[in-house]
Amino acid sequence: MTKPAMSSERTRIALATLPTPFEACIRLSEELGRHGPAPAIWIKRDDCTGFAGGGNKARKLEYLVADALQQGADVLVTMGALQSNHARQTAAAAARHGLGCVLLLADAVADRSEAYHTNGNQLLDRIFGAQIRFLAAGEDGVAVAAETMAALAAEGRKPYFIPVGGSNALGSLAYREALLELAAQAREQALALDHLVVATGSGGTHAGILAGVEDAGLSCRVHGISVSRSSEEAGSIVAGLVQEIFALEGRERGAVAGLEVDDSQIGPGYGQPTAAMIEAVELVARTEGILLDPVYTGKAMAGLLALIRSGAIAPAETVVFWHTGGAPGLFAYPEVFGG
Ligand SMILES: *Cc1c(COP(=O)(O)O)cnc(C)c1O
């Protein structure tokens, strides 16, 4: 067997404070156990990656920005929703490395308040000095991105494009490494992991975790809680990314094992609040003093609570919630909380 290339051989800049903490949620587990036995809940704190307010994109950007620098880029171009955490962290990474940053942002979440348009990540993008181009309703983001890249090149700039959520093979690879980090922390605690729950958006985080579970030889189930797409659609994106991660190292993959996407928490749509999300955000804040977010981790935690309540995660089992950050998004939804 050929030895897989280790990630340290790949260039990577340092942005995140690693390893992130791995903690038991004692009071949350106790609260859920008030009406009968409940599983042990642990949390992987990638909200604490530190850089620019934290979150999962810091890990991905360590690989993506390294690649951009290696290619001699002088401006990063990426896209996302108006309250994209990925856009905020990309703007900060560009600033940190003296690169320009163009954000193509779509106002894709209907009926949001003034705060959604001005506060949260939107405010932070401006503070980090990003150049923001808002997409008009119905405008084709991929076409605008191509035009933007061409226009920058015509000005003599060297633009580097990062896809939505930083989810290409290189960005997703960071989460294979993150899973190996978690596996080491679980071993230190002599903890056997039965379930892992994570938000699935553009899919790279989920894909990297699956690749890592395979490489670490773990048998835990990975539940991706979709925040936007049907299980089928998200599943095919994640499976494709898993294959791309292995392909980066010349390792072929057929069908991807252990792929589970739960689309029961989306509600009316991406970025649209649900009662279960609000309950989850307030419950974790009030038992653990930990902030989730309205778009990703609130819905993922709602998914975890539903899996416990349905018995799909049994009381004798251990579940890890992968906190992927996003708390700046809370300030874009002030009307939703604290009722
Ligand atoms: C981007 C993001 C996710 C989803 O990660 P993907 O790799 O895009 O699936 C989850 N949580 C937060 C807070 C995010 O910003």
Description:
This protein folds into two domains: 22-56 and 168-332, Rossmann fold (3-Layer(aba) Sandwich); 59-166, Rossmann fold. It has eleven helices and ten strands. The radius of gyration is 19 Å and the shape is globular. With 339 residues, the chain is of the alpha/beta class. Strand 3, helix 3 and strand 4 (100-106) form a beta-alpha-beta unit. Helix 2 crosses helix 3 (85-96). Residues 1-8 have low confidence and may be disordered. It has a six-stranded mixed β-sheet, with helices on both faces. The chain has a four-stranded parallel β-sheet with strand order 5-4-3-6, sandwiched between helices. It starts with 21 loop residues before the first strand and ends in a 16-residue tail after the last strand. It binds pyridoxal-5'-phosphate. The site of pyridoxal-5'-phosphate (PLP) has 20 residues, from helix 3, strand 7 and helix 8.
Summary keywords:
single chain, 339 residues, alpha/beta, Rossmann fold, 2 domains, six-stranded mixed beta sheet, four-stranded parallel beta sheet, 10 strands, 40% helix, 16% strand, disordered N terminus, binds pyridoxal-5'-phosphate
At a glance:
Helix content is 40%, strand content 16%. It has eleven helices and ten strands.
Write the layout of secondary structure elements.
Layout: E1 22-24, H1 26-32, E2 40-45, H2 57-70, E3 75-81, H3 85-96, E4 100-106, H4 114-118, H5 121-127, E5 131-135, H6 141-154, E6 159-162, H7 169-188, E7 195-200, H8 204-216, E8 221-226, H9 231-248, E9 260-262, H10 275-288, H11 297-309, E10 318-323
Parallel strand pairs: 2-10, 3-4, 3-6, 4-5, 7-8, 7-10, 8-9
Antiparallel strand pairs: 1-2
Bound molecules: pyridoxal-5'-phosphate.
Residues 55-56, 85-86, 165, 167, 199-206, 293, 296-297, 324-326 line the site of pyridoxal-5'-phosphate.
